Amino acid sequence: MKEFTTMRRLHISFALAAYMSVTANLPAVNAQAKTQKSTTETEVVLSSARQFVKEFNAHNVDKLLSMYAPKAEIIQRDGSRQIGTKEIRGSFTTYFEQNPEAQIAVRLESVKELTPNLALEEGTVTLFDDGNTASYVSSYILLHSKVEGMWKIAVSKVTEDEILDRQNALDQLAWMEGEWIDEGATSSIYWNCQRSEDGNYLLRSFDIRFADGRVAKGTQRIGWDPVQSRIRSWAFDTSGGFAEATWSQVGEVWVNKSTGYQPDGTAVSATNYVIPIRGDRYLLRSVERIAGNEKADDVEAVVVRRGPKPAK
Length: 312
Prior knowledge:
This protein is of the alpha+beta class. The chain folds into two domains: 2-19 and 173-306, Lipocalin; 29-162, Nuclear Transport Factor 2, Chain: A, CATH 3.10.450. It has helices at 2-17, 40-57, 61-65, 84-98, 166-171, and strands at 29-30, 34-35, 68-75, 81-83, 103-115, 118-128, 136-147, 150-163, 178-183, 187-195, 201-210, 215-225, 230-237, 242-250, 253-261, 267-278, 281-291, 294-295, 299-306. The protein has a ten-stranded antiparallel barrel with strand order 9-10-11-12-13-14-15-16-17-19. Strands 1, 2, 3, 4, 5, 6, 7 and 8 form an eight-stranded mixed sheet that branches. Strand 12 and strand 13 (230-237) form a beta hairpin.
């Protein structure tokens, strides 16, 4: 009975933990950028992009400035500009002073050699002002030019940007709406997710049905925390257990770490990776699963949508 109770507790904590997240390790650069042709020069530009992320995340202004041409321009979407390394230095210095934990993640979409001395880079950059929570996403174009045989950034232009707030933050999770199921050998977990009437929350319920006939149920509320400027969630099961978490997204993957307690005061926690496979299913990988002092094996499950996606 003790073994069953422990496994049941871990399975419930697995359900509570699903989609609850905390800080993800920020990626450097997605190396799957599409290149017009594979050349040594293109690889140098790709390497430069990786180096930029490294130096930005280290807040190394001098090394960042060394990557720009002397008369480089940064053009924001509103038309404002920083011209020359002096103005660019001031911009970086002020930003890092105001945001001492700031980090970025870059996804390269393409690198094209226009001429032997010019290359065009396109991609998206996600800004984490506090080091953890995505606060800003921008599409960009960089024009690289050769200066004394070295590739330098000549022009950096933001083509589209998005400030993450309550509404568009939850919109990122809209794909979760509807009914989902994870069927296992000893139990099945059913999820139902709907947007609240006021549009400010995602409301989820889960139903765990064990092979011996036992049932465990719970609810979860997901919303935007305006104080922490991030998505947070709170989950409760019918036996009296609860858990809470923050959410972060890296690329298409949600990385989740949840903490909570069972009714008897036993602490439970898990780290989860939610990896979309296609529109009607995703892979849920749960690791570091702990209940009290007992550690459970890592698990994976393919969660499948039940029925059509809800109409908007």
